[in-house]
Design brief:
Chains A, B: Pfam families: TPK_B1_binding, TPK_catalytic. Chains A, B: InterPro entries: Thi_PPkinase, Thiamin_PyroPKinase_B1-bd, TPK, TPK_B1-bd_sf, TPK_catalytic, TPK_catalytic_sf. Chains A, B: Residues 136-201 form the Thiamin pyrophosphokinase thiamin-binding domain. Chains A, B: GO terms for molecular function: ATP binding; kinase activity; thiamine binding; thiamine diphosphokinase activity. The structure is a homodimer of 216-residue chains. Chain A is an alpha/beta fold and 216 residues long. The first copy, chain A, folds into two domains: 4-126, Thiamin pyrophosphokinase, catalytic domain (Rossmann fold), CATH 3.40.50; 133-205, Jelly Rolls (Sandwich), CATH 2.60.120. Helix content of chain A is 16%, strand content 33%. Chain A has three helices and 13 strands; from the N terminus they run E-E-H-E-H-E-H-E-E-E-E-E-E-E-E-E. At the A-B interface, helix 2, helix 3, strand 8 and strand 13 of A face helix 2, helix 3, strand 8 and strand 13 of B.
Protein backbone atom coordinates (compact mmCIF):
# COMPACT_ATOMS: atom_id res chain seq x y z
CA UNK A 1 0.00 0.00 0.00
CA UNK A 2 1.35 3.42 -0.88
CA UNK A 3 2.94 5.06 2.09
CA UNK A 4 4.02 8.51 3.17
CA UNK A 5 7.23 8.45 5.22
CA UNK A 6 7.82 11.36 7.57
CA UNK A 7 11.01 12.27 9.38
CA UNK A 8 10.75 14.26 12.62
CA UNK A 9 13.37 15.94 14.76
CA UNK A 10 13.39 13.72 17.88
CA UNK A 11 16.89 12.63 18.90
CA UNK A 12 17.88 9.44 17.07
CA UNK A 13 21.54 8.78 17.80
CA UNK A 14 21.68 5.58 15.78
CA UNK A 15 20.05 5.18 12.35
CA UNK A 16 21.01 1.67 11.23
CA UNK A 17 17.50 0.42 12.13
CA UNK A 18 15.91 2.76 9.56
CA UNK A 19 15.18 0.80 6.38
CA UNK A 20 13.17 2.91 3.98
CA UNK A 21 13.13 2.18 0.27
CA UNK A 22 10.32 4.36 -1.04
CA UNK A 23 8.51 3.18 -4.18
CA UNK A 24 7.47 5.48 -7.01
CA UNK A 25 4.06 5.90 -5.43
CA UNK A 26 5.42 6.68 -1.96
CA UNK A 27 6.40 10.10 -0.61
CA UNK A 28 9.01 11.24 1.90
CA UNK A 29 8.33 14.40 3.90
CA UNK A 30 10.71 15.96 6.38
CA UNK A 31 9.19 17.84 9.27
CA UNK A 32 11.59 20.71 9.81
CA UNK A 33 14.67 19.49 11.69
CA UNK A 34 13.79 15.94 10.62
CA UNK A 35 15.73 16.75 7.48
CA UNK A 36 18.95 16.00 9.36
CA UNK A 37 17.61 12.56 10.35
CA UNK A 38 16.59 11.72 6.77
CA UNK A 39 19.99 12.80 5.51
CA UNK A 40 21.81 10.73 8.13
CA UNK A 41 19.67 7.74 7.13
CA UNK A 42 20.58 8.29 3.48
CA UNK A 43 17.04 9.18 2.42
CA UNK A 44 16.34 11.96 -0.07
CA UNK A 45 13.09 13.69 0.85
CA UNK A 46 10.46 14.91 -1.59
CA UNK A 47 9.20 17.69 0.64
CA UNK A 48 10.27 19.82 3.54
CA UNK A 49 7.51 21.09 5.78
CA UNK A 50 7.72 23.34 8.80
CA UNK A 51 8.63 26.74 10.06
CA UNK A 52 12.31 25.79 9.91
CA UNK A 53 13.10 27.03 13.36
CA UNK A 54 15.29 24.00 14.02
CA UNK A 55 16.63 23.34 10.54
CA UNK A 56 19.62 25.60 10.23
CA UNK A 57 21.53 23.59 7.65
CA UNK A 58 21.49 24.63 4.05
CA UNK A 59 19.14 22.36 2.17
CA UNK A 60 21.08 20.78 -0.66
CA UNK A 61 18.48 19.68 -3.14
CA UNK A 62 15.89 21.37 -5.31
CA UNK A 63 12.51 19.90 -4.52
CA UNK A 64 11.85 21.90 -1.40
CA UNK A 65 8.44 23.30 -0.70
CA UNK A 66 8.24 25.27 2.47
CA UNK A 67 4.83 25.32 4.02
CA UNK A 68 3.81 28.27 6.13
CA UNK A 69 2.90 26.76 9.47
CA UNK A 70 -0.50 27.28 10.98
CA UNK A 71 -0.33 28.52 14.52
CA UNK A 72 -0.98 25.68 17.02
CA UNK A 73 0.13 22.88 14.69
CA UNK A 74 3.32 20.95 15.40
CA UNK A 75 5.75 20.36 12.55
CA UNK A 76 4.92 16.66 12.38
CA UNK A 77 1.22 17.47 12.35
CA UNK A 78 1.85 19.86 9.45
CA UNK A 79 3.78 17.14 7.62
CA UNK A 80 0.91 14.68 8.03
CA UNK A 81 -1.57 17.32 6.86
CA UNK A 82 0.56 17.92 3.78
CA UNK A 83 0.73 14.17 3.10
CA UNK A 84 -3.07 13.95 3.35
CA UNK A 85 -3.37 16.71 0.75
CA UNK A 86 -1.17 14.57 -1.50
CA UNK A 87 -3.68 11.72 -1.07
CA UNK A 88 -1.93 9.52 1.47
CA UNK A 89 -3.84 7.70 4.21
CA UNK A 90 -0.96 5.57 5.53
CA UNK A 91 1.99 7.18 7.30
CA UNK A 92 5.17 5.85 8.89
CA UNK A 93 6.98 8.43 11.05
CA UNK A 94 10.60 8.33 12.21
CA UNK A 95 12.02 10.74 14.79
CA UNK A 96 8.70 11.12 16.63
CA UNK A 97 9.62 9.45 19.95
CA UNK A 98 12.30 10.19 22.54
CA UNK A 99 13.77 13.36 23.96
CA UNK A 100 11.04 15.78 24.96
CA UNK A 101 8.15 13.72 26.27
CA UNK A 102 5.59 16.40 25.33
CA UNK A 103 6.47 15.78 21.67
CA UNK A 104 5.89 12.03 22.08
CA UNK A 105 2.53 12.55 23.79
CA UNK A 106 1.50 15.09 21.13
CA UNK A 107 2.18 12.43 18.50
CA UNK A 108 0.13 9.82 20.38
CA UNK A 109 -2.80 12.26 20.58
CA UNK A 110 -2.38 12.90 16.85
CA UNK A 111 -2.65 9.10 16.24
CA UNK A 112 -5.92 9.10 18.14
CA UNK A 113 -7.39 12.03 16.20
CA UNK A 114 -6.23 10.70 12.82
CA UNK A 115 -7.47 7.12 13.22
CA UNK A 116 -10.98 8.56 13.67
CA UNK A 117 -10.60 10.02 10.19
CA UNK A 118 -9.33 6.78 8.65
CA UNK A 119 -5.68 7.84 8.67
CA UNK A 120 -3.29 5.08 9.81
CA UNK A 121 -0.07 6.34 11.40
CA UNK A 122 2.83 4.31 12.78
CA UNK A 123 5.61 5.86 14.89
CA UNK A 124 8.90 3.97 14.70
CA UNK A 125 12.16 4.10 16.60
CA UNK A 126 14.88 1.57 17.39
CA UNK A 127 12.92 -0.03 20.24
CA UNK A 128 9.28 0.80 19.54
CA UNK A 129 6.52 0.59 16.94
CA UNK A 130 3.47 2.60 17.98
CA UNK A 131 0.11 2.67 16.20
CA UNK A 132 -3.60 2.98 16.89
CA UNK A 133 -6.54 0.78 15.91
CA UNK A 134 -10.28 1.36 16.11
CA UNK A 135 -13.15 -1.13 15.92
CA UNK A 136 -11.10 -3.66 13.98
CA UNK A 137 -8.77 -6.70 14.16
CA UNK A 138 -5.06 -6.95 13.49
CA UNK A 139 -2.49 -9.71 13.43
CA UNK A 140 0.82 -9.37 15.25
CA UNK A 141 3.51 -11.67 13.86
CA UNK A 142 6.36 -13.04 15.91
CA UNK A 143 9.35 -10.78 15.31
CA UNK A 144 12.28 -9.13 17.00
CA UNK A 145 9.76 -6.79 18.60
CA UNK A 146 9.32 -9.26 21.44
CA UNK A 147 6.53 -7.54 23.35
CA UNK A 148 3.21 -6.02 22.48
CA UNK A 149 1.24 -3.78 24.81
CA UNK A 150 -2.30 -2.45 24.49
CA UNK A 151 -3.64 0.76 26.02
CA UNK A 152 -7.07 2.34 25.77
CA UNK A 153 -6.89 5.84 24.29
CA UNK A 154 -10.61 6.33 24.85
CA UNK A 155 -12.00 6.20 28.41
CA UNK A 156 -12.64 2.51 27.76
CA UNK A 157 -12.09 0.01 24.97
CA UNK A 158 -14.85 -2.59 24.87
CA UNK A 159 -14.60 -6.12 23.54
CA UNK A 160 -10.83 -6.40 23.60
CA UNK A 161 -9.79 -9.91 22.57
CA UNK A 162 -6.24 -11.28 22.37
CA UNK A 163 -5.64 -14.69 20.80
CA UNK A 164 -2.26 -16.35 20.49
CA UNK A 165 -0.71 -14.12 23.15
CA UNK A 166 1.01 -15.22 26.37
CA UNK A 167 -1.78 -13.39 28.22
CA UNK A 168 -5.03 -14.00 26.32
CA UNK A 169 -8.10 -11.85 26.83
CA UNK A 170 -11.69 -12.37 25.73
CA UNK A 171 -14.18 -9.56 25.31
CA UNK A 172 -12.42 -7.52 27.98
CA UNK A 173 -13.10 -3.88 28.84
CA UNK A 174 -9.79 -2.05 29.05
CA UNK A 175 -9.74 1.37 30.77
CA UNK A 176 -7.36 4.29 30.27
CA UNK A 177 -6.43 4.65 33.94
CA UNK A 178 -4.89 1.29 34.73
CA UNK A 179 -2.07 -0.14 32.65
CA UNK A 180 -3.23 -3.74 32.33
CA UNK A 181 -2.10 -4.56 28.82
CA UNK A 182 1.69 -4.23 29.24
CA UNK A 183 4.35 -6.65 27.99
CA UNK A 184 2.31 -9.33 26.33
CA UNK A 185 4.20 -11.67 23.99
CA UNK A 186 3.31 -13.55 20.83
CA UNK A 187 3.01 -17.17 22.00
CA UNK A 188 2.43 -18.84 18.64
CA UNK A 189 3.31 -17.90 15.05
CA UNK A 190 1.22 -14.79 15.40
CA UNK A 191 -1.25 -13.20 17.78
CA UNK A 192 -4.59 -11.61 16.89
CA UNK A 193 -5.92 -8.49 18.61
CA UNK A 194 -9.38 -7.08 18.14
CA UNK A 195 -11.42 -4.29 19.70
CA UNK A 196 -15.17 -3.82 19.25
CA UNK A 197 -15.53 -0.24 20.48
CA UNK A 198 -12.94 2.41 21.27
CA UNK A 199 -9.41 3.29 20.18
CA UNK A 200 -6.53 1.02 21.19
CA UNK A 201 -2.91 2.13 21.26
CA UNK A 202 -0.76 -0.80 20.13
CA UNK A 203 2.93 -0.68 21.07
CA UNK A 204 5.33 -3.35 19.88
CA UNK A 205 8.69 -3.07 21.59
CA UNK A 206 11.94 -4.71 22.45
CA UNK A 207 14.45 -4.31 25.23
CA UNK A 208 17.60 -2.32 24.50
CA UNK A 209 19.59 -5.49 25.13
CA UNK A 210 17.84 -8.50 23.59
CA UNK A 211 18.92 -10.97 26.29
CA UNK A 212 17.59 -8.82 29.11
CA UNK A 213 14.21 -9.85 30.41
CA UNK A 214 11.68 -7.06 30.54
CA UNK A 215 10.88 -5.32 33.76
CA UNK A 216 9.04 -2.13 34.59
CA UNK B 1 5.42 17.63 52.28
CA UNK B 2 6.60 14.11 52.95
CA UNK B 3 7.49 12.36 49.76
CA UNK B 4 8.05 8.83 48.54
CA UNK B 5 10.83 8.63 45.95
CA UNK B 6 10.74 5.69 43.56
CA UNK B 7 13.47 4.51 41.22
CA UNK B 8 12.47 2.58 38.11
CA UNK B 9 14.52 0.69 35.55
CA UNK B 10 14.18 2.93 32.46
CA UNK B 11 17.54 3.72 30.83
CA UNK B 12 19.12 6.78 32.43
CA UNK B 13 22.65 7.12 31.06
CA UNK B 14 23.40 10.27 33.00
CA UNK B 15 22.43 10.79 36.67
CA UNK B 16 23.90 14.20 37.57
CA UNK B 17 20.40 15.77 37.30
CA UNK B 18 19.10 13.56 40.12
CA UNK B 19 19.10 15.54 43.36
CA UNK B 20 17.37 13.59 46.10
CA UNK B 21 18.05 14.28 49.76
CA UNK B 22 15.34 12.36 51.56
CA UNK B 23 14.21 13.67 54.95
CA UNK B 24 13.50 11.45 57.93
CA UNK B 25 9.84 11.36 56.98
CA UNK B 26 10.49 10.48 53.32
CA UNK B 27 10.91 7.01 51.86
CA UNK B 28 12.93 5.65 48.94
CA UNK B 29 11.62 2.59 47.12
CA UNK B 30 13.38 0.84 44.28
CA UNK B 31 11.21 -0.87 41.71
CA UNK B 32 13.21 -3.94 40.79
CA UNK B 33 16.01 -2.98 38.37
CA UNK B 34 15.65 0.62 39.55
CA UNK B 35 18.04 -0.38 42.32
CA UNK B 36 20.93 0.09 39.90
CA UNK B 37 19.75 3.63 39.13
CA UNK B 38 19.47 4.53 42.82
CA UNK B 39 22.93 3.16 43.46
CA UNK B 40 24.44 5.06 40.54
CA UNK B 41 22.77 8.23 41.89
CA UNK B 42 24.25 7.56 45.33
CA UNK B 43 20.88 6.99 47.01
CA UNK B 44 20.39 4.26 49.59
CA UNK B 45 16.89 2.84 49.28
CA UNK B 46 14.62 1.84 52.16
CA UNK B 47 12.76 -0.78 50.20
CA UNK B 48 13.09 -2.98 47.18
CA UNK B 49 9.87 -3.99 45.46
CA UNK B 50 9.36 -6.22 42.46
CA UNK B 51 9.72 -9.69 41.10
CA UNK B 52 13.45 -9.07 40.59
CA UNK B 53 13.48 -10.35 37.06
CA UNK B 54 15.79 -7.54 35.98
CA UNK B 55 17.78 -7.04 39.18
CA UNK B 56 20.56 -9.56 38.95
CA UNK B 57 23.07 -7.75 41.15
CA UNK B 58 23.55 -8.81 44.72
CA UNK B 59 21.80 -6.34 46.97
CA UNK B 60 24.36 -5.00 49.40
CA UNK B 61 22.34 -3.66 52.28
CA UNK B 62 20.03 -5.14 54.89
CA UNK B 63 16.72 -3.35 54.70
CA UNK B 64 15.32 -5.25 51.77
CA UNK B 65 11.74 -6.32 51.68
CA UNK B 66 10.80 -8.23 48.62
CA UNK B 67 7.18 -7.99 47.66
CA UNK B 68 5.57 -10.80 45.77
CA UNK B 69 4.21 -9.21 42.65
CA UNK B 70 0.57 -9.44 41.79
CA UNK B 71 -0.01 -10.62 38.26
CA UNK B 72 -0.81 -7.70 35.91
CA UNK B 73 0.93 -5.05 38.00
CA UNK B 74 4.10 -3.41 36.74
CA UNK B 75 7.05 -3.05 39.09
CA UNK B 76 6.59 0.72 39.38
CA UNK B 77 2.89 0.24 40.07
CA UNK B 78 3.81 -2.23 42.83
CA UNK B 79 6.26 0.29 44.28
CA UNK B 80 3.60 3.01 44.36
CA UNK B 81 1.13 0.59 45.96
CA UNK B 82 3.70 -0.23 48.63
CA UNK B 83 4.31 3.49 49.25
CA UNK B 84 0.58 4.04 49.66
CA UNK B 85 0.48 1.29 52.28
CA UNK B 86 3.23 3.22 54.10
CA UNK B 87 0.95 6.29 54.10
CA UNK B 88 2.43 8.35 51.26
CA UNK B 89 0.23 10.36 48.90
CA UNK B 90 3.01 12.22 47.07
CA UNK B 91 5.46 10.37 44.82
CA UNK B 92 8.42 11.42 42.68
CA UNK B 93 9.57 8.72 40.27
CA UNK B 94 12.92 8.50 38.48
CA UNK B 95 13.65 5.99 35.71
CA UNK B 96 10.05 5.93 34.49
CA UNK B 97 10.52 7.54 31.04
CA UNK B 98 12.63 6.57 28.04
CA UNK B 99 13.54 3.29 26.41
CA UNK B 100 10.47 1.14 25.91
CA UNK B 101 7.59 3.47 25.13
CA UNK B 102 5.00 1.02 26.53
CA UNK B 103 6.56 1.53 29.97
CA UNK B 104 6.27 5.31 29.64
CA UNK B 105 2.62 5.11 28.54
CA UNK B 106 1.84 2.65 31.36
CA UNK B 107 3.20 5.22 33.81
CA UNK B 108 1.10 8.02 32.30
CA UNK B 109 -2.02 5.85 32.64
CA UNK B 110 -1.03 5.16 36.23
CA UNK B 111 -0.84 8.95 36.86
CA UNK B 112 -4.38 9.26 35.55
CA UNK B 113 -5.74 6.47 37.75
CA UNK B 114 -3.89 7.66 40.85
CA UNK B 115 -4.86 11.34 40.65
CA UNK B 116 -8.50 10.22 40.82
CA UNK B 117 -7.66 8.70 44.20
CA UNK B 118 -5.85 11.80 45.47
CA UNK B 119 -2.36 10.42 44.83
CA UNK B 120 0.02 12.96 43.25
CA UNK B 121 2.78 11.44 41.13
CA UNK B 122 5.57 13.22 39.25
CA UNK B 123 7.79 11.43 36.70
CA UNK B 124 11.21 13.01 36.29
CA UNK B 125 14.06 12.60 33.86
CA UNK B 126 16.83 14.88 32.59
CA UNK B 127 14.54 16.68 30.11
CA UNK B 128 11.03 16.17 31.44
CA UNK B 129 8.79 16.61 34.49
CA UNK B 130 5.44 14.89 34.02
CA UNK B 131 2.46 15.11 36.35
CA UNK B 132 -1.34 15.13 36.32
CA UNK B 133 -3.84 17.60 37.78
CA UNK B 134 -7.60 17.36 38.25
CA UNK B 135 -10.16 20.08 38.92
CA UNK B 136 -7.59 22.41 40.45
CA UNK B 137 -5.07 25.22 39.84
CA UNK B 138 -1.29 25.13 39.85
CA UNK B 139 1.48 27.65 39.43
CA UNK B 140 4.40 27.05 37.07
CA UNK B 141 7.48 29.07 37.94
CA UNK B 142 10.03 30.20 35.39
CA UNK B 143 12.86 27.66 35.51
CA UNK B 144 15.30 25.78 33.34
CA UNK B 145 12.34 23.69 32.22
CA UNK B 146 11.64 26.21 29.48
CA UNK B 147 8.41 24.76 28.10
CA UNK B 148 5.17 23.55 29.55
CA UNK B 149 2.63 21.50 27.63
CA UNK B 150 -0.91 20.49 28.57
CA UNK B 151 -2.77 17.43 27.32
CA UNK B 152 -6.24 16.17 28.17
CA UNK B 153 -6.09 12.65 29.64
CA UNK B 154 -9.88 12.50 29.73
CA UNK B 155 -11.86 12.79 26.48
CA UNK B 156 -12.06 16.52 27.20
CA UNK B 157 -10.81 18.92 29.83
CA UNK B 158 -13.25 21.76 30.38
CA UNK B 159 -12.49 25.24 31.62
CA UNK B 160 -8.76 25.18 30.90
CA UNK B 161 -7.25 28.58 31.70
CA UNK B 162 -3.60 29.63 31.27
CA UNK B 163 -2.45 32.96 32.68
CA UNK B 164 1.08 34.31 32.38
CA UNK B 165 1.94 31.95 29.51
CA UNK B 166 3.16 32.93 26.04
CA UNK B 167 -0.06 31.38 24.72
CA UNK B 168 -2.86 32.24 27.14
CA UNK B 169 -6.16 30.38 27.18
CA UNK B 170 -9.43 31.21 28.90
CA UNK B 171 -12.05 28.64 29.77
CA UNK B 172 -10.97 26.47 26.86
CA UNK B 173 -12.12 22.92 26.17
CA UNK B 174 -9.07 20.79 25.39
CA UNK B 175 -9.62 17.41 23.72
CA UNK B 176 -7.47 14.28 23.81
CA UNK B 177 -7.24 13.86 20.06
CA UNK B 178 -5.58 17.07 18.98
CA UNK B 179 -2.30 18.23 20.50
CA UNK B 180 -3.08 21.92 20.98
CA UNK B 181 -1.29 22.60 24.25
CA UNK B 182 2.33 21.95 23.18
CA UNK B 183 5.38 24.10 23.92
CA UNK B 184 3.91 26.95 25.90
CA UNK B 185 6.38 29.10 27.84
CA UNK B 186 6.22 31.01 31.10
CA UNK B 187 6.04 34.66 29.96
CA UNK B 188 6.24 36.35 33.36
CA UNK B 189 7.65 35.29 36.73
CA UNK B 190 5.24 32.39 36.79
CA UNK B 191 2.27 31.04 34.91
CA UNK B 192 -0.99 29.76 36.37
CA UNK B 193 -2.88 26.79 34.95
CA UNK B 194 -6.32 25.69 36.02
CA UNK B 195 -8.84 23.10 34.87
CA UNK B 196 -12.47 22.97 35.96
CA UNK B 197 -13.35 19.45 34.83
CA UNK B 198 -11.19 16.58 33.63
CA UNK B 199 -7.63 15.37 34.10
CA UNK B 200 -4.79 17.38 32.58
CA UNK B 201 -1.34 15.96 31.89
CA UNK B 202 1.22 18.68 32.60
CA UNK B 203 4.66 18.22 31.03
CA UNK B 204 7.46 20.66 31.76
CA UNK B 205 10.43 20.10 29.50
CA UNK B 206 13.61 21.45 28.06
CA UNK B 207 15.56 20.84 24.88
CA UNK B 208 18.58 18.58 25.08
CA UNK B 209 20.73 21.55 24.08
CA UNK B 210 19.54 24.70 25.87
CA UNK B 211 20.38 27.05 22.99
CA UNK B 212 18.38 25.05 20.48
CA UNK B 213 14.93 26.40 19.78
CA UNK B 214 12.18 23.83 20.11
CA UNK B 215 10.68 22.22 17.08
CA UNK B 216 8.42 19.24 16.61
Amino acid sequence: MKTCYIFGAAPTPEVSWIHVAPDEEDAVICADGGYQLARRAGIKPDWLVGDFDSNRETVDFDQVIRVKPEKDDTDIYLAVSHGRKLGYTRFVIYGALGGRFDHSIANVQMLKGMIKEGIQITLLDAQNEVTAMMDTSIEIPKSDFRYFSLFSLTEVCEGVTIKGGAYPLTDYTLTSDFPLGVSNEVAEEKAAVSVKKGILLVIRSKDAHPNEKSSI
